[in-house]
Design a protein that fits this description.
Two copies of one chain form a homodimer. With 342 residues, the first copy, chain A, is α/β, with parallel strands linked by helices. Chain A contains twelve helices and twelve strands. In chain A, the strands form two sheets. A six-stranded parallel beta sheet of chain A has the order 2-1-3-4-5-11, with helices on both faces. Chain A has a six-stranded mixed beta sheet with strand order 7-6-8-9-10-12, sandwiched between helices. The longest helix of chain A has 21 residues. At the A-B interface, α4, α5, β2 and α6 of A face α4, α5, β2 and α6 of B. Chain A binds a DNA duplex (16 and 16 nucleotides) through α2 and α4. Chains A, B: Keywords: DNA-binding, Transcription, Transcription regulation.
Amino acid sequence: MNKKSATIYDISHKLNVSVATVSRALNDHPRISEATKELVRKTAKEMNYKQNNLAKALKSGETKNVGIIVPYINTNFFSSVIRGIEEELSLLGYHVIICQSHEDVNIEKRHLNTLLNAQVDGIFMSVSKTTIDTEHIENILETTNTPIIFFDRKKDIAGISTVTIDDYRGGYMATEHLIKEGYKNICHFAGDLNLEIYQNRLNGYKQALLDNNFQIKEDNIIFTGSSIDTGIDAIKKLWDRKSIPDAIFSSSDFAALGACQELKKRKIKIPEEVAVIGFSNEPFTQFMELPMSSVDQTPVTMGKMAGRVFIESVKENGSGVSTEKKVVLAPQLYIRKSSKRK
Amino acid sequence: MNKKSATIYDISHKLNVSVATVSRALNDHPRISEATKELVRKTAKEMNYKQNNLAKALKSGETKNVGIIVPYINTNFFSSVIRGIEEELSLLGYHVIICQSHEDVNIEKRHLNTLLNAQVDGIFMSVSKTTIDTEHIENILETTNTPIIFFDRKKDIAGISTVTIDDYRGGYMATEHLIKEGYKNICHFAGDLNLEIYQNRLNGYKQALLDNNFQIKEDNIIFTGSSIDTGIDAIKKLWDRKSIPDAIFSSSDFAALGACQELKKRKIKIPEEVAVIGFSNEPFTQFMELPMSSVDQTPVTMGKMAGRVFIESVKENGSGVSTEKKVVLAPQLYIRKSSKRK
DNA sequence: TTGTAGGCGTTATCAA
DNA sequence: TTGATAACGCCTACAA
């Protein structure tokens, strides 16, 4: 009952030629007569022959598979990056293997290991929030030839190429925009500073303030997560004290959304009394009651770039040298009603 | 400069034992002394040995990889289903390979083939809109043992398990809800009827009308796509003629969104003058200016169920018998402001 | 132009 | 308890 697919042996038997001939014919080897090629191809089709990439990979050392590790796949940002990578690489015959770390460094480690065991040709990853130590990653670099490419959430490790957006500039642009709109007391919802992206957004915010002769008030920096609830809590916290901000630059769209909800509840008008601007340009931002300004991360482009960086590193690996690439994409500010007072 | 990872041969050399012993020790074979096991494991770690799953797969015939083909990965629905599948299967040591068909049956075919070449243990798929003929799929069934599982967008093919939601019931529920709210002239935005899901949603809509003594007016069935623009166009078309509906049940959230936008533009009040209800419960629906009612498809659950169906079929395949499963999940109606008149 | 044979890294069978 | 060896399916020197 088991249908085993035909191998080149089966074909060679049927045709009374050697396996080598079959293999070469199937691979369009120049020194095989057109007649045999034709014959082999025809019978291969008849016998429903399918090449076993496993065997080929075992021989060649190339699986034509790459792994991707992200915290969760079902967010607009990560699924869009994956889309970009897949579109860039599937044309070149690569398959894309997806793993979710659930923001847990131990799961991340496990996936890294199983991907390596699966002999992937490369690994794309955005580190989890709990990835503080990076020994497990550096270790791979030292002991294997498998290229690793960080996208978005990177760590500074020599020899690893990265594709990111300029989060600093994103933070700067958002803050500067608020200043130009006349807001005076701008607060920032900062994310987990263990991740560079949030560190950079915060720094951009700070520098924009300084460059415009504003003071940086530590009280105006609230740490939130990337959920609606943390945004709600942040508003509660802010309004419980004296100095109330007139603008919020949030490092997360979801926290910004929570802020909008809580502000509405308190009958505080956006953007008249308080401006709100988020980060990521999640699809929902443009459909909100009050369309929300946000910083776009061009995720599909990021994925495509990451794919290209990988391809280059594969080529280089063949030639011996290997230099890391650091691609930095420009963020794009989408200004909508939530931050336009003028 | 090339770092080649250690094999069991390297270990066997170093320890002066046979490869067989090493292999058995690593696999915790009962008839190997604890001492050698310990020694082997220790040196394996020292030499940074990593099992080559390729070789193992070649031998065993199991790659522990499954393929998933979806139109696009970066939509909430598909990425959530994938999340479910990944979470269910990664625990069992499987990896998940993602392919996008871009709604093109030819790309779908190509992916199907390369996945088969990659020796995946199973294939999950949601067919593309251009998949009319299913010969290429039936062919796989006949010539391989690779189980195929359809989720959401299925085709009726004997021997293929499916996991779907009850779209008929979803359509019925949505329409009935509108009727109970007192709407009298309910129109339907139908999707591509080549896909069963849209056929079923339409049928549910019709039956709900009939069961409540409403007439089915063919004019009230507008064919839209799954984009905002098609929803806008639909409203234009409807309002250009005499009998204007007082409720819209859209088979797509995006078309429903387009409708809301166009209605607002025309100063037509939702839900007082016209009710709107969508399908898919996309994240943006709850954050809209006027939160929109929608039918939830429980995508993560769908993915998990699909994973389980696959596992069962793997077990069965070992035992010889193989019966197809048809899992139908219950849709969930989320009633929000856009359809509550009372 | 075609054939022979070895090897990729494992596991499993048969001996010892 | 361990060892030798064949086999998984393919590719590729080397030979013919």
